[in-house]
Amino acid sequence: MFDPDIAPSGTLLGLLQRGRGDGTLHALAEQRGEALAALERCVLSDPRRDWQVESRSLYYARLYSELEGGLDGIEQHLFHPDDPLDTDEQRTGLALSVLGHLAGYGRRDALRLLRDYAARGGNWEWALDELALRADDATLRALAPAVLDRFPRDAEGDAALARAVREAYEPRPWRLWAEDPVHGERVRAAQERGSFDRWQRQMRPAGPTPGWSVRDVLRWAQEGLDGHPTQHRDAPAARCLAAVAGPEHRGELLDAARRGPEAARAAALRHLADRQDPDVLALIGAASADPSPVVARAALESFSRMRSVAALERARAWAGRDDELGGAAARMLALLGGPEDTARVLSALRRTVRAHGADADGLDVLIEGVGRLSIGCAAPVLRHVYRETASSHLRGCAARALAATDPSFAQGFAIECLWDCEETTRELAARYATTGDVRVLARLRSLAADPAEEAEVQTAVRGRLSTPEPLT
Question: Are 245 and 253 in contact (CB under 8 A)?
Fold first, then answer.
């Protein structure tokens, strides 16, 4: 995923990039010009490591509203001369989402920018989806000529239009345009073609398929790895083996898992692990350190999916290892282990943070395991991860674990979490934050009245506000 440049966690910019509640609180106490400069930098240069699991748009839009920030910087960014040439959604997606929330808050200048960008911008589909949620019918109908003129009236243009209609996240504009007396015929034709294309793709084979024998499947997996471009078929091959392999093929599969070609070996490992073969754990232990990344990855992924008692016992033996297999074993214990595994999970958490930092891969599973096992002495490590991680998703995991392990959470981080960028973290805070702090009740009331807030958060907030006894 994208690896942004993140400022230190103690700075205003670093707090805002991380989406922490303290970012909002510090920005509101900072000089307005400096706060707006930091906010604008975040919006124009998306700080998220993975936009699919991290939220920022509502967080930034709320701060824009509270600071009464202008949108000139966003406008210049959207209509930069490079916009038609840069097709990466990462450049403009966050800014457009922020504009969408601002339009929902009644900012007419945000709505105008979205409308202009949908008509002239490169990432027009995203802007149109935002408008579909906030604009009235008349505004959307007026955009039809500008959007449809992007597609030439020829075979290639009609195919591109059908693809745009089919892939639209929000169908509302296209449905309105399908009813338009001027443009409706062309849009309806694109809708019909999109449905036909989808049916064709479902009926048409996606690519080469293996023969129906164990040997054919293993050969097919290896042919994908040897071909150009390379195709990793070991996982689908393992699923095919589930259909064609019987008990009589066990010897052939064990031999392939021990000494077969890379992809065939990986496919056999995956299949044997799914079948809980009694010899597969020894094979996984050997394959996890194989020089071939295909074999090593298959071994680690296969072990991670296992749920047997034997796998759990082997995980206890492997959890102390300082390698990838040791990490996978510790994560299994975090997910499935019992009270007897607390020392192993805690040791793995400390070792991972010490060696790889607060954004290490797999850290979320270990943190969730610490919370599930209620390992109270892990609180200092969890607080460190909470403060330092650049991932708001991982910070949310740390907050949930702290709620289960740290008695001071309700009086500490829970209050800050009411302003967090992640809805699940705000929901957690609404359930835990002590009302002894004067800011908490005011924030709860603000969240309850905010039409942009998620339903789950508002349910938690209203539950706290309706509690007859004061919660401290």
Answer: yes
Q: pLDDT digit string (tens) for 47-67? A: 998 888 999 999 999 999 999
* Alpha-carbon Rg for the chain in angstroms: 27
Which residue, among 400, 387, 470, 465, has the nearest Cα to 429 in the 3D structure? 400
Residue 469 has pLDDT above 80, yes or no: no
Fill in the amino acid letter for 127. Answer: A
Report the alpha-carbon distance of residue 364 to residue 368 in Å, rounded: 6
Torsion sign over Cα 150, 152, 157, 162? positive
72 phi and psi angles, rounded to 5 deg: -60, -40
Listed in sequence order, the DSSP H helices in 205-358 are 214-226, 234-244, 250-259, 262-274, 280-287, 293-305, 309-318, 324-336, 342-356
Phi/psi of residue 332, each to 5°?
-65, -40
Burial of 309 (0-12, 13-18, 19+ CB in 10 A): exposed
Task: Give the list of residues 6+ apart from residue 407 with CB closer than 8 angstroms, or none.
Answer: none
| Rounded distance between C-alpha atoms, residue 350 and residue 175, angstroms | 54
Give the count of beta carbons closer than 10 Å to the beta carbon of residue 154.
9
* Cβ atoms of 435 and 461 closer than 8 Å: no
Q: What is the pLDDT of residue 468?
A: 52
C-alpha distance from residue 56 to each of 200, 451, 458, 459 (Å): 38, 17, 18, 21
**Residue 403, token pair as written in the block:** 């709620």
Query: Which percentage of the chain shows pLDDT scores above 90?
Result: 88
E strand or H helix at 459: helix 455-465
- CA distance to 90, 245, 263, 295, 296, per residue, from 236 (Å): 31, 14, 11, 15, 17
Residue 259 has φ and ψ, to the nearest 5°, of: -140, 15
Q: Where are the alpha helices (DSSP H) in 168-261?
A: 172-178, 184-203, 214-226, 234-244, 250-259
- Nearest by Cα to 10 from 19, 21, 23, 29: 23
Calculated CA dihedral for residues 404, 406, 409, 411, nearest 10 degrees: 130
Q: Return the amino acid letter for 274.
A: D
Which region holds residue 11: left if phi is over 0, alpha if psi is between -120 and 50, else beta? beta
112 pLDDT more than 50: yes
> For residue 208, is the peptide bond before it cis, meaning its omega torsion is within 30 degrees of 0?
no
Domain boundaries of the chain, sorted by first residue: 12-203, 212-306, 407-472
**Mean pLDDT, residues 211-233:** 91
